[in-house]
Design brief:
This protein is of the alpha+beta class and 166 residues long. It folds into two domains: 30 residues; 125 residues, 3-Layer(aba) Sandwich (Protein Transport Mog1p, Chain A). The chain is 22% helix and 35% strand. Strands 1-2-6-5-4-3 form a six-stranded antiparallel β-sheet, with helices on one face. It is elongated, with a radius of gyration of 21 Å. It starts with a helix and ends in a 7-residue tail after the last strand.
């Protein structure tokens, strides 16, 4: 009886391992963040999973370009045209990097967006857009502190677990 139970447990473990390998090979990759502006320099890129604090995957990227903010905004208007119902649409300014007061899809804006020497240590000046598709919430922030450039671009994509996979 003990040997039979061991064989059943071993079968379940091997079946689970096989299923995990099958899913890894057949599940499509998450969609990438929007493309950066032409000739933009990547300053950082991060992808992390946080199971304890909400069970999500966070992908983010920070770029710097010599183009002025107006040109970068025009680039993203053309690039993101296919995503309807954008919130912000690069017409609404945001003035803080505090997660509690920042746009919903931009909860991890890096400190480099802060205004130097401002009385408020979290003061910032950027225009943003945010949109959703599938299980993904995407935010794009464009630094507007320097009208002639350089311009910082921060992107964040939060992927919630799919309810259809349960």
């Amino acid at each position: 009886m003990l040997i039979g139970l061991a064989v059943i447990v071993l079968g379940v473990v091997l079946a689970g391992a096989g299923y995990t390998i099958y899913l890894a090979k057949t599940t499509p990759a998450d969609p990438p963040l929007p493309a950066p502006p032409v000739h933009a320099q990547m300053l950082s890129q991060l992808s992390k999973t946080d199971i304890l604090d909400g069970n999500f995957v966070l992908d983010s990227a920070l770029y710097r370009t010599s183009a002025p903010p107006v040109q970068v905004i025009a680039y993203y208007h053309a690039l993101l045209r296919a995503h309807p119902n954008q919130i912000g649409d690069f017409t609404e300014p945001s003035t803080t990097i505090l997660p509690s007061q920042a746009p919903e899809a931009l909860q991890h804006i890096p400190p480099v967006f802060r205004i130097p020497d401002a009385p408020d240590a979290n003061a910032a000046q950027y225009l943003y857009t945010e949109y959703s598709f599938g299980d993904h919430d995407v935010g794009v922030a464009i630094d507007t502190r320097y009208p002639k450039g350089p311009t910082l671009v921060y992107m964040e994509m939060l992927t919630q677990p799919s309810t259809s996979s349960f």
